[in-house]
Write a structure and sequence with these properties.
The chain has 136 residues and is mostly helical. The protein folds into two domains: 46 residues, no CATH class; 79 residues, no CATH class. The chain is 54% helix and 0% strand. It contains six helices and no strands. The model has no long low-confidence stretch (mean pLDDT 85).
């Protein structure tokens, strides 16, 4: 997947922090995980479930609705789809082996997409009925 500039910048910042921490901590800095991205200030590997365990706290501290961390994948897929990204591209972005998983589970149509679909149907409706398109 392409590395978008904000994430590239974040990775560079993390690397610079690690280099500073290595100098500050000297021999106390853990050398075992030097090739890893997400380590703490002492160079120790951050546990994989740390983010999911603290996600609820982050939501609460920011006044956001409680959702599961995994639900962010659904939001990502739906936002990509609503912005014109194809299902195939979303499938590859999310790493699904089957496009059916992407289309059936991960992409949720927003209201404007439903309105667009309804108006597309009306385009084939006989004009003499006086039916107007939605949103007019």
């Amino acid at each position: 997947l392409p590395l978008v500039p904000p994430f590239e910048e974040l990775l560079h910042r993390l690397r610079q922090e690690q280099l500073v921490n290595q100098k500050v901590c000297g021999t106390a800095y853990c050398q075992k995980y030097l090739d890893y991205i997400y380590v703490n200030a002492m160079g120790e590997l951050v546990k994989p479930n740390f983010i999911t365990q603290h996600f609820e706290i982050t939501l609460k501290n920011n006044g956001l609705k409680k959702i599961r961390f995994h639900d962010l994948r659904h939001s990502c897929a739906s936002l990509l789809y609503a912005n014109g990204v194809s299902l195939k591209e979303i499938q590859e972005w999310l790493g699904h082996s089957d496009i059916g998983t992407t289309s059936n589970i991960y992409t949720h149509l927003d209201y404007s997409s439903k309105v667009s679909s309804a108006n597309a149907i009306l385009a084939f409706y006989p004009e003499n009925t006086g039916v107007q398109t939605i949103g007019q």
